[in-house]
Amino acid sequence: MAFTMENALMDKTPRPQEGDKLPPLQLQPLTSNPPGLNDLAGAPALLFFYNLGCTGCLHRGLPLAQRIHEVYPQLRIMAIHVDLGRHSYPTEAILAEAQKRGFQLEHYRDTGSATYEAYGAEGTPHWILIDAEGRLHRSIFGSMEGVQVRLDYILREWYS
Known about the structure:
- The chain has 160 residues and is an alpha/beta fold.
- The protein contains 5 helices and 6 strands.
- The termini are far apart.
């Protein structure tokens, strides 16, 4: 089902809770030779849902994801462009923006927002932390300072 505000308001599907095993990812890889999409078990991962039409995603979220990648290179970070309603962009535009800004992340597209919805994302930017067993550790919406502090706290806990 495509994302619309009406669908979102009427959706009674339960969101994954912390500790829940997450469903398989349904994504289109945009970068060459990405690791296996469903190979998330064995090491923690961070999914970052964003949209090019989201100012917070472009000016705070993507730069934060890149900084996290630089500080925690062992953490798998998946930047996932989600097509939300009329906010769909060509693949070339998504990759051009990433290249222009120097982002060195795995990039994917969530056409139809299937993974976005299955993982209970609330908007963009949205962060999903997955533990080494493939379970939801934390789901965080936004990109302001409080979100950055929460992500940093969790990652320091995992890697110190």
